[in-house]
Amino acid sequence: MKIGGSVRTKLRLFVECSLLVAGVALLGIVSVALVHRSVSSRLALAEFDKDQAALVEKAAASGTPVDEKVDFSLWSAKRIREYRASLLVKKDAPMAVLRIEKLKVRVPVFEGTDDLVLNRGVGWIAGTARPGEPGNGNIGMAGHRDGFFRGFKDIAVGDAIELATPGVVSHYAVDHIEIVYPENVEVLRPRSAASLTLVTCYPSYFVGDAPQRFIVHATLKQQVGVSK
Q1: Residue 174: beta bridge partners?
Q2: Is residue 168 within 8 Å of 131, Cβ to Cβ?
Q3: 194-227 pLDDT per residue, tens
Q4: Are both 125 and 215 inside the same structural domain?
Q5: Where would I find the H helices in the chain?
Q6: Backbone CA torsion sign across 208, 213, 218, 219
Q7: Same domain for 213 and 102?
Q8: What's the number of domains the chain is made of?
Q9: Is residue 57 located within the same domain as residue 121?
C-alpha cells in the first residue's frame, strides 16, 4: 500500500509539474504574440511617418489632392497602410469635402464606393442625391469604420456636419442615429427634407466583416454660396 501510494504521489507530482510547464510556455507564447503585435503596429506607424513626405510629393505631382493633417490616432495600422498606398494612385479631384468639427474630421468625397475610394477618403453612394445639386434628396456617403469614420461612436444628435461643393457650403445637423443590417436600404431613400446620410460598418472594433451598419442622418439647415 505504501509503495502504491508513493507511485501515485509521484505520478500526481509529474502531472502537476507538466501542466505548470505547459502553462508557463503558453503564457510565454501569448506574451511574445502581444509584443510582436504592438511592435508591428508601431513599426507601421513609424514607417508611415518616415515615408509620408515623399508620398505627399509624389501624389501632388500626379495631381491627386492630399490631406496633410489627417489624424491617424484612432486608425487601424492596416487602414493607414492602405490610405498611404492610395496616395500613389492618380484619382480625379474630389466632388466635395466633408467636415465634422466635433470629430476633427475633414475628408475628401469621391464618386463611388470601391476599395480605392474608401481607402483614400469617403465615397458617394451612387443612386442617392448628388452633392451640390439642388433639391430635397438624400445624399448618401460611406466611409471605413477603422479610418475616417472611426470616431462615429462619439457623434450625437445636434452635431454639425459641413459639406463643401464647388460654389456652395451646406450645413447639416444630425437628427437621427440608428444601427441596421446591410440589407436595410430604406435608410438611403429620400426624406421629408434635404438630407445627408453617412454609413459605416458596426461594431467599430469588430474583428472581420462587421454584421451591421451605423447610420447617421442629418438635415440641411443652411446653404451658403462662396465665390469661386
Answers
A1: 218
A2: no
A3: 999 999 999 877 777 889 999 999 999 998 876 5
A4: yes
A5: 2-61, 77-86, 115-120
A6: positive
A7: yes
A8: 2
A9: no
Please indicate, yes or no, whether residues 180 and 138 belong to a single structural domain of this protein: yes
Instruction: Examine the domain organization and report whether 103 and 120 are in the same domain.
Output: yes
Range of the domain at 71: 1-91
pLDDT of residue 180 exceeding 90, the answer is: yes
Q: For residue 48, report the phi and psi dihedrals to the nearest 5 degrees.
A: -60, -45
**Percentage, residues of the chain above pLDDT 90:** 36
Q: Which of 91, 126, 156 is the last residue of a domain?
A: 91
Residue 94 has φ and ψ, to the nearest 5°, of -65, 150
d(CA 69, CA 64): 15
Query: Each residue of 52-83: pLDDT tens digit?
Result: 444 444 444 444 444 446 788 888 888 888 88
Query: Of 194, 198, 190, 196, whose CA–CA distance to 215 is shortest?
Result: 198
Does 146 lie in the same domain as 114? Answer: yes
Full-model pTM:
0.67
Lowest mean pLDDT among 21-30, 31-40, 116-125, 147-156: 31-40
